[in-house]
Structure to design on (683 residues):
C-alpha cells in the first residue's frame, strides 16, 4: 500500500512531465519540418561548387553569387577582353569577373516574380469577391436548387484541376488566352471560387440575419447594410479564405508550366530552370525559392490575427 | 407617431400558414401587445409590419399610407430584436448613431441626439465602451437607444426582455412603459409572457396558431375571455373548466351539473350543440359546505397572501384561490360554490364563449 504524498490532479492543467514531453515532440517536429527550408536558405548563399559538393557542406563561406546569378545573365569573355574593362562597378560584377564573365543584362526572374504577384493577388481578390457575394446569396436568399448548385460548385473541386489541363490548353489557344496574365487570373479564380463560396458560406451563415435586418429597418438598403454590417463581421472568414486562395494561386505549378512560357510566366515554372555554367545553377534556384516564400509569409503574418480567429469557425457570434 | 392598421393579414411559408387573417388597429400612442405561445405567429406578424417579411395576403397601413409592399428602409419604424442585434464591430456610441448615419445629418446633430438618447436611458457613461463586454441590461438599453434616437413613427419590439434574467425583466417592464409614455410613442410589443403583457399593455391581441383569438384591454381579456384558449393561456393558475352537457338557450340563467344548480350570467345566445364547458377563475371559487357540487382537497400551494387549493371533483380538478388563513386538510370533503356573475360558458366544440350578461356593455375590437 502506498502512503506517500498525494498530489492533487487537475483536470485542466497537464502535469509538468506531460508538458515537457509535449514540448519536446513539438520542438522535434518543428525542427524536422524546418530542415528543408533552412537548407534552401543556406544553399542560396553557397557558391556553385559548394552547393553540389559531396558530402554536403554545412559550414561554408557565404557568397552572394546565387542572388547575383538569379537576377542577371552573364556571358563568358576572353581574358584579353576582360583586361580592357574598367574596374567592376558592383559586388555582382566582381563575382562575375572572378569567373571570367561579364554581366550581360538582367535575368527574367524579376518580371516572372511580378507576374506571380499580379496573377496570384488578382485571382485571389476575384475569387474572394465573387465567393463573398455568392455565399451571401446562398446564405440569405431562397435560391432555387440551392443545394444542387452548391454541390455543383463543390464538384468542380472533386478532380484534380490538372485533369482538364488539355481541354483548357486548347480552349485558351483558341481564345488567345495562352500565356496571358488575364488567362491565368481567370483560371485561378475559377479554381478557387468554389473553395471561397463554401468557406465563406459557413462564415456568413454564422452572422445573424438580424444585423442586416436591423440596418435595413434603420433605413439602409440591403447593399449598404451588407457593406456596413456583414462585411466587417465577415473579415475573419474573408482573411482565412484569401490566404487559402492565395497559397493555391501562388504555388500553382502544373497549369503555369502548361499555359505560360514567356510574357505571363509565373515564378514556379521559371525558378527550377535557372541554368548556370554546366547545368542547374543551384544557388540561384535556392535564392529564387527563398525570395518566392517571402510574400506569402508576409501576407500570412499580416492576417495572422484574423486567421487564428477564423480557424475557430463560428467564433463570430455574439 | 402614427396609427398602425393591419387588415386581414396572411403569411404562408410554403403550405404552412403562419399567420391567418390578422386584423387589428394600434392607435396612435398605444402600447399594444401581441401575446401568445411560442410558434403562434407573433414574430411573423411583427416582421410583416416592419417590412422584413412580405405578406401573402392582406394590407398594412402606417398612418394614412399603405405600406404593405414597401421596403423596411422606407417605413420609418424602429425594431428591437430579441437578441438586440448590436453590431459587435462598433462601440456603443456608433451603434446608437448607426440609424442616423444613413440620413445626411450633420455630425454635431448626430452627437447631440445620441447623447440625449443615452441620457434618457441612463447609459451616458458607457457610450465609448465596446458592446461586447456589456451586461444584458446595458445591451437592452443600447438596443433601445438605437431605436429611439431616430424618433421613428412606431416601435416594434420582439420579446425584448426574453434574454434578461427574471428579476431585471420586471424592472425593465416598468422602464419600457415609462419610456413609451415619455416619448408618446406607438409601440407594438411581442411577448409570450402574460405577466409582461398584462402589466404593460393598453391593448392585447392574444394569438394562437396564426389567428388572433381575442383583442382587448388586459382587463377584458382576463375577465371576459373570448375562447377557452385565451381563458387557459391567461391567468396563473388559469381558468378552471368544468365540462357538462346541456341544451342551453338564450335567456338561461343557470346550468345543472351533477344535480347541482349553478347560477350563471344570463345567456344572450343559444348554444349550437349540447357539449358545453363552464369556466371559472380560481379567485371566484369558494368552499361552501352546503353546495351540492362536491369534491375532496387534493393539494394546496401556499403563496403568502393567498393559497391555491386544488379540489378533485367528478369533473376533474378545480383550483380555488383562497385567503391563506383558511385551513384545509388534504383529503377533506368540501363543497364548491362559484361567483355567478363572473362565470363564462364555452361551446366546447368550437372553443368560443357564449355571449351572456357578462359581456353586456363590453366593447369589441
Ligand atoms: N422563414 C420561415 N420559414 C418557414 N417557417 C417559418 C419561417 N418563419 C417562421 N416560420 C414558422 O411560422 C410559425 C410562426 O413563427 P413565429 O412568428 O416566429 O412564431 P412566434 O414568434 O409566435 O414564436 C412557426 O411555426 C415557425 O416555424
Ligand atoms: Mg418569436
Amino acid at each position: 500500500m502506498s502512503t506517500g504524498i498525494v498530489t492533487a490532479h487537475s483536470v485542466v492543467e497537464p502535469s509538468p512531465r506531460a508538458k515537457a514531453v509535449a514540448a519536446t515532440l513539438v520542438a522535434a517536429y518543428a525542427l524536422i519540418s524546418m530542415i528543408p527550408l533552412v537548407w534552401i536558405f543556406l544553399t542560396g548563399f553557397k557558391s556553385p561548387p559548394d552547393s553540389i559538393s559531396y558530402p554536403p557542406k554545412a559550414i561554408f563561406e557565404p557568397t552572394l553569387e546565387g542572388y547575383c546569378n538569379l537576377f542577371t545573365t552573364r556571358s563568358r569573355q576572353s581574358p584579353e577582353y576582360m583586361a580592357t574593362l574598367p574596374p567592376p562597378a558592383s559586388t555582382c560584377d566582381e563575382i562575375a569577373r572572378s569567373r571570367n564573365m561579364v554581366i550581360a543584362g538582367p535575368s527574367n526572374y524579376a518580371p516572372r516574380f511580378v507576374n506571380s504577384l499580379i496573377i496570384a493577388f488578382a485571382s485571389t481578390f476575384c475569387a474572394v469577391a465573387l465567393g463573398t457575394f455568392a455565399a451571401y446569396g446562398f446564405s440569405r436568399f431562397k435560391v432555387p436548387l440551392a443545394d444542387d448548385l452548391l454541390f455543383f460548385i463543390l464538384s468542380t473541386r472533386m478532380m484534380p484541376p490538372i485533369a482538364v489541363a488539355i481541354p483548357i490548353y486548347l480552349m485558351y489557344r483558341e481564345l488567345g488566352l495562352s500565356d496571358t496574365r488575364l488567362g491565368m487570373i481567370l483560371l485561378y479564380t475559377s479554381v478557387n471560387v468554389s473553395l471561397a463560396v463554401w468557406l465563406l458560406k459557413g462564415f456568413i451563415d454564422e452572422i445573424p440575419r438580424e444585423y442586416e435586418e436591423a440596418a435595413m429597418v434603420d433605413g439602409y438598403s440591403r447593399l449598404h447594410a451588407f457593406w456596413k454590417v456583414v462585411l466587417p463581421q465577415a473579415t475573419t472568414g474573408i482573411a482565412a479564405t484569401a490566404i487559402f486562395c492565395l497559397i493555391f494561386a501562388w504555388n500553382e505549378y502544373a497549369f503555369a508550366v502548361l499555359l505560360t512560357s514567356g510574357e505571363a510566366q509565373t515564378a514556379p515554372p521559371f525558378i527550377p530552370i535557372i541554368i548556370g555554367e554546366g547545368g542547374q545553377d543551384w544557388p540561384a534556384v535556392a535564392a529564387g525559392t527563398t525570395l518566392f516564400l517571402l510574400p506569402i509569409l508576409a501576407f500570412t503574418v499580416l492576417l495572422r490575427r484574423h486567421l487564428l480567429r477564423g480557424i475557430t469557425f463560428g467564433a463570430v457570434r455574439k | 407617431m402614427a396609427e398602425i392598421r393591419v387588415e386581414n393579414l396572411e403569411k404562408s411559408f410554403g403550405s404552412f400558414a403562419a399567420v391567418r387573417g390578422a386584423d387589428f388597429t394600434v392607435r396612435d400612442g398605444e402600447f399594444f401587445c401581441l401575446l401568445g405561445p411560442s410558434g403562434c405567429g407573433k414574430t411573423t406578424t411583427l416582421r410583416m409590419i416592419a417590412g422584413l417579411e412580405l405578406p401573402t395576403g392582406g394590407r398594412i397601413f402606417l398612418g394614412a399610407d399603405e405600406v404593405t409592399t414597401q421596403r423596411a428602409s422606407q417605413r420609418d419604424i424602429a425594431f428591437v430584436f430579441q437578441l438586440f442585434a448590436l453590431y459587435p464591430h462598433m462601440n456603443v456610441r456608433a451603434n446608437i448613431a448607426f440609424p442616423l448615419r444613413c440620413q445626411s445629418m450633420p455630425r454635431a446633430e448626430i452627437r447631440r441626439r445620441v447623447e440625449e438618447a443615452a441620457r434618457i436611458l441612463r447609459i451616458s457613461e458607457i457610450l465609448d465602451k465596446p458592446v461586447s463586454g456589456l451586461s444584458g441590461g446595458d445591451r437592452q438599453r443600447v438596443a433601445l437607444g438605437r431605436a429611439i434616437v431616430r424618433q421613428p413613427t412606431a416601435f416594434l419590439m420582439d420579446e425584448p426582455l426574453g434574454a434578461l434574467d427574471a428579476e431585471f425583466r420586471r424592472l425593465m417592464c416598468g422602464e419600457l412603459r415609462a419610456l413609451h409614455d415619455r416619448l408618446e410613442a406607438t409601440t407594438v410589443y411581442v411577448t409570450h409572457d402574460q405577466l409582461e403583457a398584462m402589466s404593460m399593455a393598453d391593448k392585447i391581441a392574444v394569438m394562437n396558431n396564426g389567428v388572433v383569438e381575442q383583442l382587448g384591454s388586459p382587463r377584458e381579456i382576463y375577465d371576459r375571455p373570448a375562447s377557452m384558449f385565451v381563458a387557459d393561456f391567461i391567468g396563473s393558475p388559469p381558468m378552471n373548466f368544468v365540462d357538462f352537457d346541456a341544451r342551453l338557450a338564450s335567456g338561461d340563467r343557470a346550468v345543472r351539473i351533477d344535480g347541482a344548480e349553478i347560477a350563471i350570467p344570463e345567456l344572450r345566445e343559444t348554444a349550437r350543440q349540447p357539449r358545453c364547458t363552464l369556466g371559472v377563475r380560481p379567485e371566484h371559487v369558494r368552499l361552501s359546505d352546503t353546495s351540492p357540487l362536491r369534491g375532496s382537497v387534493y393539494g394546496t400551494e401556499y403563496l403568502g397572501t393567498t393559497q391555491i387549493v386544488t379540489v378533485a371533483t367528478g369533473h376533474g380538478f378545480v383550483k380555488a384561490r383562497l385567503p391563506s388563513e383558511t385551513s384545509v386538510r388534504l383529503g377533506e370533503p368540501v363543497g364548491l360554490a362559484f361567483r355567478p356573475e363572473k362565470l363564462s360558458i364555452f361551446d366546447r366544440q368550437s372553443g368560443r364563449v357564449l355571449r351572456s350578461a357578462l359581456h353586456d356593455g363590453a366593447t369589441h375590437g
